[in-house]
Amino acid sequence: MKSDLWITEKQTEDLAISFRVKKTLHEEQTDFQHLALVDTYEFGRMLFLDNCVMTSIKDEFVYHEMISLVALNTHPNPEHVLVIGGGDGGAIREIVKHPKVKTATLVEIDGRVIETSKEYLPEIAAAFDNPKVTVLVDDGIKHIQENKNKYDVILVDSTDPVGPAVGLFASDFYKNVYDALREDGIMVAQSESPFMHQDLIKGIHNDLKHIFPLVKLYLAAIPTYPTGLWSFTLASKKHDPQKVNPEDIADTNTRYYNKNIHFAAFVLPNFAAEIFK
């Protein structure tokens, strides 16, 4: 007999998504946010922060491949990569697979996300012990300010723009990211749902356009995120993701991302393209 326990994310004032829970694995109030790990019937083990879905065993590969590999395969030599946030370790797992990456630094403000992910989501948090990886439990905003001209690729793997992640959506932060990148660096930020968060996407795009010469939106299908369609914003000092030679795209044993997806992700449906008009 199935459990009668459900966990619900209130995505807007008028929209919610619920998951039937087999078992609550862990729950605590960290120094920064409420953290819960549950095992669900439909999506397996899931991580929630402040009652919002962060990742699930069933669909996590889409988000983690798409936030990392598009930029890594756009940059011709992504030797030094930084992830701000991303304490579940999924982006790091994908980064270290890329043959040109020499160092992968993770800066996560909430160390409990890292530790509980290692314990309950080992498939996702699988690369923290990789020799390429350095893990820092620290403020990503401060780290960016203190490390100029250091990284080839910076990924902003943040939670929603509330609580501890608010500063990761600010124009001043993007300026500091620009300075932390090398002369041909690339950044990618998760930028929420094109159905539900059009003003946010437009604001991120406009802020980055004042800083970077090239800014582009791309999309991926992630069932557990609001509306199932998610966006990422790429900003580049030099390299255009749509002008990559397909033969240069590394094969890193992916489940969602491939050479065709790399280019197709930038082909926006009309309603999404109209966000920028």
UniProtKB/TrEMBL annotation:
The keyword Nucleus does not apply. Residues 4-237 form the PABS domain. Its EC number is 2.5.1.16. Keywords: Cytoplasm, Polyamine biosynthesis, Spermidine biosynthesis, Transferase. InterPro entries: PABS, PABS_CS, SAM-dependent_MTases_sf, Spermi_synthase, Spermidine_synt_N, Spermidine_synt_N_sf. It catalyses: S-adenosyl 3-(methylsulfanyl)propylamine + putrescine = S-methyl-5'-thioadenosine + spermidine + H(+). Coiled coil: none annotated. It is an enzyme of class 2 (transferase). S-methyl-5'-thioadenosine binds at residues 33, 108, 139-140, 164. One of its GO terms (biological process) is spermidine biosynthetic process. Pathway: Amine and polyamine biosynthesis; spermidine biosynthesis; spermidine from putrescine: step 1/1. GO terms for cellular component: cytosol. HAMAP family: Spermidine_synth. This is Polyamine aminopropyltransferase.
